[in-house]
Design brief:
The protein has five helices and eleven strands. The chain is an alpha/beta fold. It has a single domain, classed as Rossmann fold (3-Layer(aba) Sandwich). It is globular and about 50 Å long.
């Protein structure tokens, strides 16, 4: 199942970000975990080869709890990607994190269920630590890319990942806020952890689209239409930030992510 194609940087596109590069070559990447969400679209920017994969499919036909995360991550690995960017839309759980701003997450909390979330099912017992789930060097580059484009950036934050496809109840949202978690999403887990298990560097860029169930801002609960409205208003900022980040990321640099198994096995 090897592929002749190669890429330096991988991007998982989410809601509202179904195309990113121009003049792309669409390819199928076969994996031992089954089909990816869509074709992988290969392009080039700033002298680097970039692989773009829409995690929900181009028609947004795959809900978050049905995404084949292992296949998607494996496709990036097979292409030789060293750094993976995971942009996504999120709801805010804290009043000071306003819609239209961006968060560069540094932690996640898993509240999903039923998702296959590891490559290591035996016979070699493997425990990959997620203590620092996102690559700090990449996070700093993402912050730099946001500042360079005059984007309001929150330099860290904890994203709580719920299973979906439903949104939170108000009681759940209030609980998440009281736990001092910052933002909420449906796809960062197990996507980010699988990238780490696969030995690639990983960074998240979260675009805040709403105040979740409206608890902290005393506003209306989130709706998909409202999410897409704010997302579409800010998609230009996200694109600029992604292009700037690609310019900053050195090709072939793993920042130690490729050595993740050194302390993960007995």
């Amino acid at each position: 199942m090897e592929t002749k194609y190669k890429a330096d940087i991988g991007i998982f596109g989410g809601s509202g970000l179904y195309s990113f590069l121009d003049n792309v070559t669409p390819i199928n990447v076969e994996t031992e975990y089954g089909p990816c969400s869509d074709k992988v679209f290969l392009g080039e920017y700033a002298g680097k080869k970039v692989a773009f994969l829409p995690r929900h499919g181009r028609e947004h036909g795959i809900p978050p709890h049905k995404i084949n995360y292992r296949a998607n991550v494996t496709a990036m690995k097979k292409l030789g990607v060293s750094s993976v960017i995971c942009p996504c839309a999120v709801g805010s759980l804290q009043r000071h994190i306003a819609p239209g701003s961006f968060v560069i997450a540094d932690q996640w909390v898993d509240r999903t269920n039923g998702r296959i979330d590891t490559f290591f099912d035996g016979p070699i017992v493997t425990h990959v630590s997620p203590a620092y789930p996102y690559t700090e060097e990449l996070r700093q580059l993402a912050i730099q890319a946001g500042r360079a484009n005059n984007i309001e950036i929150h330099e860290k934050g904890t994203v709580v990942v719920i299973n979906g496809p439903r949104f939170s109840s108000r009681a759940e949202s209030e609980w998440f806020t009281k736990m001092n978690w910052d933002i909420i999403n449906m796809t960062q887990y197990p996507e980010a952890h699988l990238v780490r298990e696969a030995g690639m560097a990983c960074v998240n860029i979260s675009l805040v689209t709403d105040y979740d169930s409206g608890v902290v801002a005393d506003c209306e609960p989130v709706s998909h239409a409202a999410v897409m409205g704010v997302f579409n208003e800010n998609i230009g900022k996200l694109r600029k930030m992604l292009f700037s980040l690609i310019e900053l990321i050195p090709a072939g640099e793993y920042w130690g992510a490729d050595r993740v198994l050194e302390n993960s096995r007995f």
